[in-house]
Amino acid sequence: MNEKTLAIIVAGGCGSRLSGMKRSHPTDSALPKQYMLLSEKCILDHAVENFTSHSQIDHVMVVIHRNDEEVYNNLVSRHNKLLPVVFGGKTRQQSVHCGLIAAQKLGFGGPVLIHDGVRPFVEAETISSILDSISPGNCAIPAHPVIDTLKKCGKQLEVLETISRQDIYCAQTPQGFMADEILAVHNNATENGDDNHPADNFTDDASMFEMAGLGVKLVISSSQNFKITTPEDLQRARDIVSDKTREIAKLHTDIRTGNGYDVHALSPGDEITLCGHKIPFDKCLKGHSDADAALHALTDALLGTIGAGDIGSHFPPSDPQWKGAASDVFLKSALAMVDAEGGIINNVDLTIICEAPKIDPHRKAMRENLAKLCKLELNRVSVKATTNEKLGFLGRQEGIATIATTTISFGTRT
Ligand code: MG
């Protein structure tokens, strides 16, 4: 005998209330409900993972219907701690019994938790509390208080009686026992029953324990640890999973990318401004403002991450107040808008396209300017340059263009 902790997950049912007899694909509504998908994983896989990922659980055994071996192998991940499947019986009680017998053969004599394969949301704290509450002669079960008013009805749905809900709880799983005690209780029930005997009608294992005169202790748990039985339950479970997925996505992966492009024409002059840095040159860039194509492209990229239009919609060229303006005004405005939405810039990357002037001697000053404006470390700021191979208007040095890309994380600010 070993004292290791075992979780037995019972998944032998055909799920007649949700499905029929055909068993093939996870999107097929005829599948037993434990194999239906919640997000990308089936319900049973969620349930199994709650136990295989728990530090106090040493092994997990799943009891399945004999006909479901292929679908089980296809849909349930090869989690650590998983033992080979055990085939169940006609009823839940028989399936649990099959699991307990298999556990005994494998030498398990310590705590055992018995869980429904269609309860995918059991919390780690509940599993811990159940394990901590098991003692010889006493089992522990999770339960939550009844909230609704209880009515007892007759055959015509006429109310006969309102039942006090005080001290009434809904029992859930996992239910925790000492392996030898619950096996003895099951053995006894089987010996005293036959196929039609009421001894086979227990809907949970704690009631059998209770009937045997042993102790049952409640651990208060969440109503979210519900059993998926009806189509409404399945929809509720899918809503919970998609809410969780959205929350995780919001916290960890709400990373948005924005791009911007700008071009300004060159005309005779003595300097150009790119990235807020003045470069002596025999031409200047034409535009209503200082025509800094690099800052304009970056401003558009920033606005692109929050769906806030483009530079022209915020600072129309027709507005005289922007005549000759230094373009850092536009950039700072876009930065403030991103900041107001909780955005944190990961990086900015610019490519300046021109035949002349040479960008390389000015690259460091440009990056430092951008880093200061965007409040970024220098290694998050990139300025690259390329020519247009003398092709087109850029190749003929009629203008200078810039492409900008930025990635920004949202929703991670604490
Ligand atoms: Mg522009």
How would you describe the overall organization of this protein?
With 414 residues, the protein is α/β, with parallel strands linked by helices. The protein is 31% helix and 26% strand. It has twelve helices and 19 strands. The protein has helices spanning 43-52, 69-75, 92-105, 124-133, 179-191, 205-211, 231-252, 293-305, 311-314, 328-340, 363-374, 392-395, and strands at residues 6-11, 37-38, 41-42, 59-64, 86-87, 111-116, 138-145, 150-153, 159-163, 169-171, 175-178, 215-220, 255-268, 271-274, 277-280, 283-285, 344-353, 381-386, 399-409. The strands form six sheets. A five-stranded mixed sheet has the order 5-4-1-6-11, with helices on both faces. Strands 16-13-19-17-18 form a five-stranded mixed sheet. It has a three-stranded mixed sheet with strand order 10-7-12. Strand 2 and strand 3 (41-42) form a beta hairpin. Helix 3 (92-105) packs across helix 5 and helix 8 packs parallel to helix 10. It is elongated, with a radius of gyration of 34 Å. The model is unreliable at 19-28 (pLDDT under 50). The structure holds magnesium ion. The site of magnesium ion has 5 residues, from strand 13 and helix 8.
